[in-house]
Amino acid sequence: MSDDQGFSRRSVLRTAGVAGAGLGIGALGGPGAEATQPGAASAAQEGEATAKTPPRRGRTMIGVPFEERRTVRVGMIGLGQRGGSMIDLFLALEGVRVVALCDPVREKTERAAKKVTDAGQPAPALYAKGDHDFEKLCKRGDVDFVYVATPWDWHFEMAKAAMKGGKHVGVECPIAMELDQLWELVDLSEQTRKHCMQLENCVYGRNEMRVLRMAHEGLFGDLLHSAGAYLHDLRGLMFDPDYYEGPWRRKWHTRLKGDLYPNHGFGPAANYMDINRGDRAVRIATFGSPALGLAAYRKEHMPPGHESWKETYIESDMSISLVQTAKGRVVRLEHDVSNPHPYSRINILGGTKGVFEDYPPRIYLEPDMSGDQWGDFDKYKSHDHWLWKEHADPPGGHGGMDYIMLFRLVQCMRLGLVPDFDVYDAATWTSPVPLSHASIKAKGTPQEIPDFTRGLWRKKRPGVDSEKP
User: Fold this and answer.
1) Mind listing the pLDDT tens digit for each residue in 334-371?
2) Per-residue DSSP letters for 172-184?
3) Which of 138, 183, 177, 136 is nearest to 155 (CA)?
């Protein structure tokens, strides 16, 4: 069964089903830290993939730096709500030139082009001749980095086109929607020697970076658990004809049952636990609630004959996933965009010395606190990442994390540094999309998360908690 854009639910189930082969309900209860669990499997044993890992087709991209360059030449694909605002931040960065713009709606490219010339840069090339004009942009010889901010259906194809065109690429969340697509992006990054990155802004949030540094400094003790989420009431926006370009985001709720947008929660949690840098996400089990919210909203707000009345929503209003790591740690992920809920990414980290919980931020650490009373997280400002110390009041949306993310990306490209995250992180952080769907379909049966690093996760290496260059 395919939808009107060629998406096949069967393909997700096929690829996810292979990854989950041989895992029963009891597989979720894997061992904890081997030091405290007599007879437990070692982290190395637990981290071994039980499903067949495809052979490597190129050299690893772990630790591979960007080519040093004075100016980063950017091509942007997608100039709607997200891309139309991110261009302002690219233009605010030193050493960036926006040389090409692409969107099938020509008015959007022209509006963005005016921002470029108003910033004193030469007029960019425009690509607005249909859905596939991005392929020409990706073949240009004067583009170093391609930024993708389009409907999710296109992310995989655009990332592929960029790397095949010899460009590094950064993609808004999620980077792809199917498990075999994630493997293909990993292989293509290794073959082309170009970085393919999930541009996950939340890992650059002030709170997330402070907690990350505190975790690495040992303030939480031995890490045990984390939680992240995307709880955001999008009902009005998903039915708004002007906010999204067509009903593409709402239609995903007719295709998949699981966590459609795990990256904002999983990315920070994975960083806290050094996933792919000494630990590995091994398996995921997901349960989902009934899908009622969008239909109820439609009944109350949409007139008879509206196009949405042809849609049947299957996406679980609330999906709750448990991810277990090779070291036995647990990450809880939640997703709900279909019901009333104040915005929250949950953002929890717990260890043997205490716990941080966000929304609102609060902390309890021993020996600093006692008596079961939350402490003041602001007292730990001295642990802020150097990026936030240098940019205390960054411009742009989402509290400044968008600017911090792009600043750091451009800094790494100009100085020839290794990026803070890579294609293996992109694939891992996005893998809950198909795997949570498969788990729900299998009544919560755990699904194996592939080892996209092909065994190299065991080696400690830097990530978002970077040293100041």
Assistant:
1) 999 999 999 999 999 999 999 999 999 999 999 999 99
2) PSPS-SSHHHHHH
3) 177
Say how far apart CA 172 and CA 168 lie, in whole Å: 14
Picking from 257, 382, 243, the residue whose alpha carbon sits closest to that of residue 320 is 257
* Alpha carbon distances (Å) from 239 to 242, 295, 297: 9, 11, 9
Amino acid in position 419: P
Place of tokens 């939340």: 202
Give the count of alpha carbons within 13 A of 78, CB side only.
21
33-89 pLDDT, tens per residue?
A: 333 333 344 555 566 655 578 999 999 999 999 999 999 999 999 999 999 999 999
Instruction: Give DSSP secondary structure letters for 259-276.
Output: -S--HHHHHHHHHHTTBT
* The pLDDT of residue 23: 37
Inter-residue contact 225 to 330 (CB < 8 Å): yes
Closest CA to 329 of 34, 49, 21: 34
Q: Give the span between the Cα atoms of 467 and 407, in whole angstroms.
A: 15
Question: How many CB atoms neighbour CB 130 within 10 A?
Answer: 8
CA dist 408 and 387 (Å) reads 8
Model confidence at 20, pLDDT cuts 50, 70, 90, reads very low
User: Looking at residue 252, what DSSP letter applies?
Assistant: G
Instruction: Report d(CA 236, CA 12) in Å as an integer.
Output: 28
Q: How far apart are CA 46 and CA 32, in angstroms?
A: 10
pLDDT of residue 47: 62
DSSP string, 71-111: SEEEEEE--SHHHHHHHHHHHHSTTEEEEEEE-SSHHHHHH
| Strand runs labelled E in 136-238 | 145-148, 168-171, 196-198, 223-231
Q: How far apart are CA 415 and CA 382, in angstroms?
A: 27
Q: Is the pLDDT of residue 148 over 80?
A: yes
232 vs 82, 92, 317, 387, CA distance in Å? 16, 29, 11, 27
Residue 399 to residue 188: CA distance in whole angstroms:
34
| Residue 278 Ramachandran class (φ > 0 left, ψ -120 to 50 alpha, else beta) | left
What is the end-to-end Cα distance of the chain in Å, rounded?
A: 51
* β-strand pairing of 362-365 with 354-357: antiparallel
Side-chain half-sphere CA neighbours of 248 within 13 A: 15
